[in-house]
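Table S2 (text version). Query chain:
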Amino acid sequence: MLPYAYYLLKVIICSGTFFGYYWLLLRNKIYHRYNRFYLLATVVLSLVMPLIQINIWHTANAPAQTIKLLQVVSGSNDYLDEIVLTSQRNNFSAEQLVSLLYCFTSAIFFSLFVQVFLKIRTLLKQHRQTVIDSIYFVNTTAKGTPFSFLQYIFWNDHIDISTATGKQIFKHELAHVHQKHSYDKLFINAVLIFYWCNPFFWLIRKELNMIHEFMADKIAVEDSDTEAFAAMILQATYPQHQFALTNPFFYSPIKRRLLMLTKNKTPKASYIGRVLVLPLAVLLFAAFTLKTKTIAHTPVYHGKKITVVLDAGHGGKDFGAVSLDGSFTEKDLALSISQKIKSMNSNDKINIILTRENDIYQSPKEKADFSKAQNPDLFVSIHVDGISRDSAAIKTGMSVFVYNEINTNTNNSKLFASAVINEFSNNYKIPVTMLPRQRHKRIWILKESPCPAILIEAGYITNKKDLAYLQTDEAKETIAKNVLAAIEKYANQNNIALNKTSLSPAEVDTIPGNSSINPKEEKNQLPENILYVLDGKVIGNGKIASDKVDKLLEEKFVFQTDKRINVTILEKKEAIKKFGEQGKYGSIEEVVATGEIAKQPAVSDAAAKNKTSAQTIGLDPKQDDKIFTQVENEPKFPGGESAWKGYLERNLNPSIPFNKGAPGGIYKVIVKFIVNKDGSISEVKAETKHGYGMDSAAVALIKKGPKWVPALQNGHNVTAFKEQPLTFVVEEHK
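Corresponding structure-token output:
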């Protein structure tokens, strides 16, 4: 309703301006034909001009801005979003009530409009008709006659058509028919059904009726006695009844009709008054239709030629996510988007290579091997997301993912993801997750990438609105433009062509493992400033290839995740303090013998805030005061996830926000709490503040719940944080 209200306001302003000009310079002038079409044009232009938008683009030659590195967030708790509590609001909002009132008023005017047709139809059925030169002459004694409508003249039998008066009246009504005045009435009354709130349209209707009479009067008195015709109007009974769509003879303000009969022509004033409308029309047109927009100038990449591998997710027998009705698959959408990106690339310095050109199946290893063979500078995997039917209506939007472990490309992958998000945030028509994300499970295709790599989930194929947009050419072109623009901005800033993968401290946060390594020469080698210790044994440093380290670590090596543990990552400068100068570490056995590296404390919130050089995943059993955010086995509700979900859905009233007067919408409540070593719950608090009783109800329910199964780290019960999102959906009554 709000967009329509803005449109109505523009219509009123436009029609008011045009009508004001008419009132000042054209009203009561003798050029009735011009005034008639001016008023009709006023209505049409007032309705159309607010809908027209002509963009005047100009380029702002601003220097390229540094890409802002966005913080990466974890997507490990995505499954919890499926806990959705829905209530329906049965009362109407103020906007709905206004809309209902507006529609009801329009319905009344429509019924009156139809009623006139029914009454005219009744008159036609009840009275005799005579056809004279394609004009239907209807004899009647009904009130309001004589009048004309379309090709019909409804004549009152009490008026003798053979008399001088009768002949003038007939000539008057015949003028209405020949000049098609009924069509004007039909048009303006139809407009008023939908735009009855515009006062200027009512005034225009009144003026049109008068202009019709002026035009018919002028024809009726040609070669006749003007004074006699004026006397006849004065002596006639003022209309007892009239229909809005007809042209009754006895309609006036009498004074204006008499004035028009005797008014002299003033050609000069007439011409000036009509010409002056042109600048007014131009000004209004410019005000309502011309919009100035700035094109931000993005420097086109002109460096050394770079290669971008573009992966269309899934394919062949691997359908990926599927729409709710089964008509659309992720593999097809991903392929069409990838092909659009490649086809729209016009920069000869950027070589885009697709992992697949058609609907074929490729295993993740085949895709990774193909990508490595291209020696790429960037890797982009295109996907669309999907979710269960229960949550399909509320899960929407696009996201960009990066790999959840530390490697030589971590910083640049985050920076590239940030560039993509910045582009999409400006013009994408579905919601954009404004931070790069990491999945709880490894994204293998990103892990194996030899260069900065991201995965784009363009939207949810299970959400009707997302899917409808993703199918359009507009969406595919927008995605293509955004990805290509992000590639160029990243290339300009990061200078890929010169093989610079390290970023300055001002551009990115420093993390262990980042170094200025030439990816073309040493992309398979770990950074030299890191020492890796697994279960008390040094297993590698910069002298060992990453694939060999991965093989040694198997499922245990991952940086700061909840499933794989016992890896200590120690920066070289810290190792020097412990084991001597560089190159004097001693043998592996000597290092292990110190026993110091393997006893580094596990990462907690408190430890994360300290700017220590060591970052570890492990546990010293003596450190009982730690509160873990990442653990080997997360705390669990008795009975598991399904029991936890059932507990929340059974005991949390979905009507809480409705009962508290919350407006319709989707409210995500996030509650954080601590599960202690004995399974008890403490420090329950809501991170959100929606109000309407939602946050407090969720906190209260978790507080009174049963004991949990505590978290495990290295076989020991530990205290750990837990986060639970709950989604309240308040639906307006339809």
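Notes on Table S2: Residues 255 and 694 are 69 Å apart (CA to CA). The radius of gyration is 39 Å.
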